[in-house]
Task: structure prediction
Amino acid sequence: MSNKSVLVYGPQGCGKSTHADAIAKALGLNKIHDDWEPGTPFAMLDTLILTNDCENHAPFTRRLMSFDQAKQLINSQGEQA
Result:
């Protein structure tokens, strides 16, 4: 069974791409879509979606978190962050 995709947002250079594998693993996701731009297509299932855009999250009403929240999640699960 696939999980719904999750959007992680944060400013450019904060570490989203560097820690993408650990975040995806902590969320139980198998794919990563880096540099997503609002208004462009995205996978609805099983994908960690990374973006610099901190405002336009309309498709992700309840499946989004800041990079700081994602880091806390991977730290709490013992992943390298």
About this structure: The beta strands are 6-9, 31-33, 47-51, 64-66. The chain is about 20% helix and 20% strand. The two ends are 27 Å apart (CA to CA). The CA atoms of residues 24 and 48 lie 6 Å apart.
